[in-house]
């Protein structure tokens, strides 16, 4: 959080690492934020490899009360 000029200077100082970040403004001040990548696209391929056939069998025991 800081003034717009301060945040712009931080973005310049970061160089290539600051190029993908956006300056957002609010009543409290300004922030330099990274965009959030969605995990959905990353895990879609991994979940496709899972199937019920590859799952380990679970042994379910009745709960024993003492």
What structural class do helix, strand and pairing data support?
A: alpha+beta
Rounded to the nearest angstrom, the radius of gyration is: 24 Å
> Distance between termini?
57 Å
Structural domain tally: 1
Characterization of this structure:
With 66 residues, the chain is of the alpha+beta class. It has one domain. 32% of the residues lie in helices and 15% in strands. The protein has helices at 4-14, 39-48; strands at 22-26, 29-33. A two-stranded antiparallel sheet has the order 1-2. The radius of gyration is 24 Å and the shape is elongated. It starts with a helix and ends in an 18-residue tail after the last helix.
What features would you highlight for this structure?
alpha+beta
Indicate the topology.
Layout (H helix, E strand, L loop, with lengths): L3 H11 L7 E5 L2 E5 L5 H10 L18
């Amino acid at each position: 959080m800081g003034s717009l000029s301060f945040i712009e200077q931080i973005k310049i100082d970061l160089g290539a690492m600051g190029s993908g970040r956006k300056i957002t403004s609010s009543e409290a001040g300004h922030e330099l934020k990274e965009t959030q990548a969605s995990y959905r696209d990353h895990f879609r391929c991994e979940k496709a490899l899972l199937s019920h056939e590859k799952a380990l069998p679970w042994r379910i025991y009745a709960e024993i009360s003492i």
